[in-house]
Amino acid sequence: MKLTILGGGGFRVPLVYGALLQDHAEGRVTHVVLHDLDPARLSAVTRVLAEQAAGVPDAPEVSATTDLDEALRGADFVFSAIRVGGLEGRANDERVALAEGVLGQETVGAGGIAYGLRTVPVAVDIARRVARLAPDAWVINFTNPAGLVTEAMSRHLGDRVIGICDSPVGLGRRIARVLGANPKEAWIDYVGLNHLGWVRGLRVAGRDELPRLLADPDLLGSFEEGKLFGVDWLRSLGAIPNEYLHYYYFNREAVRAYQQAEKTRGAFLHDQQARFYAEMRNPDAPAWKVWDRTRAEREATYMAENRETAGAGERDEDDLSGGYEKVALALMRAIARDERTTLILNVRNQRTLSVLDTDAVIEVPCLVDANGAHPVTVDPLPDHATGLVCAVKAVEREVLAAADSGSRASAVKAFALHPLVDSVNVARKLVEGYTEVHPGLAYLG
């Protein structure tokens, strides 16, 4: 089975390959094709994978190419993890937004809109090529903003594109762990959009254990989200929000922390990865050791400003191991082998949330089999969550309209409608600022 990884020179590719190395069942991936526009990054990652595979019998073959059509032909699965504009683009997204006093995070607020405007045209081109060159392939999208990009691609690939994210998985795992439950035996009632969802229940053997967690302040304050949001706020919500909702619920504090930080997250990662790829130009450098050291630093500093604002302290050791690669592998297994499972995924709504239309991509538990991912019926969202979900989905639709038409007015409208942008004048300044620093936004008239 052939897996094509778009963004194959990206830093986190070894996580995906490491998951594949642990899969020895029949029908597994036997050939991995890495595609990237940067030959040097491809070379660096290929070296890391070669050291990973050393001594592993029947490790999947790895090849690399800068030719997108060549990479896609004959693919059974396409894993999309591209970064349009690179980490320099992410740093610019943050800088332009913070200069206007609003959030520049890569998936939330102004930064997420700018990233989406750059990425959607490229993702749509990829979707069209997949439809033409590999019509039977399944596309697994991890490219951010994951929900928005998945929806853009679904207009050309239908339900054969599925978005994944590790945040809901990590959240469910932490809740189950603190309750003394096995995460594999728990049903997580999670619903929303990508990076905008809530756990409303966690059932073990048919019993909802979340009320027990909410009733115990010591338990509730003992894990990441309890520390991040505070016990009182979680009990007021009656649910556990995705960590990215910290940007909404504590926006003023988050913006101030990012403005005062020595470096934004994008600038930090840009410099960190530049050091990694520079070190990899040395043919004698121990590729795997260098990569793993860099990965550990990256994971430990994740959402550091938010945790500092909340006084949440360092991340728990159990939360430093990632997880999206495991979701990707479980999804591929379920489809390729008809190994039925339940995963929280980004898929078209169908009739799951009545407040959204059928084509809107949402993030919910799905039953997965050989025919793809099927969203499970969920209870309606409470009013406070419905308001946020509908507002952000309206923003996403304006981003898609701007990317499709090249309309600058639609781009301004997308920024202005976002709950974290507080003025139409600021929205206009953001569009001006982003079009100045991003050549990829020249299409906006």
Task: Draw up the topology in text.
Blueprint (H helix, E strand, L loop, with lengths): L1 E5 L6 H9 L9 E5 L3 H15 L7 E5 L2 H5 L4 E4 L5 H14 L9 H25 L4 E4 L4 H12 L3 E3 L3 H12 L7 E8 L2 E9 L2 E2 L1 H6 L1 H4 L3 H6 L1 H7 L2 E2 L4 H4 L1 H10 L4 H15 L7 H14 L3 H7 L13 H14 L3 E8 L12 E9 L2 E4 L7 H23 L2 H10 L6 H14 L8
Parallel strand pairs: 1-2, 1-4, 2-3, 4-5, 5-6
Antiparallel strand pairs: 7-8, 8-9, 8-10, 11-12, 12-13
Helix pairs in contact: 1-2, 1-17, 4-5, 4-14, 4-20, 5-6, 5-18, 13-16, 14-15, 18-19, 19-20
**Whole-number mean pLDDT:** 94
Helix vs. strand class:
alpha/beta
Widest sheet: strand ordering: 3-2-1-4-5-6
How helical, in percent, are the residues? 40-55%
Instruction: Using the alpha-carbon principal axes, give the shape.
Output: globular
Beta strand count:
13
Low-confidence stretches: none
What is the overall number of helices?
20
N-end to C-end Cα span: 43 Å
Percentage of β-strand residues: 15-25%
Radius of gyration: 21 Å
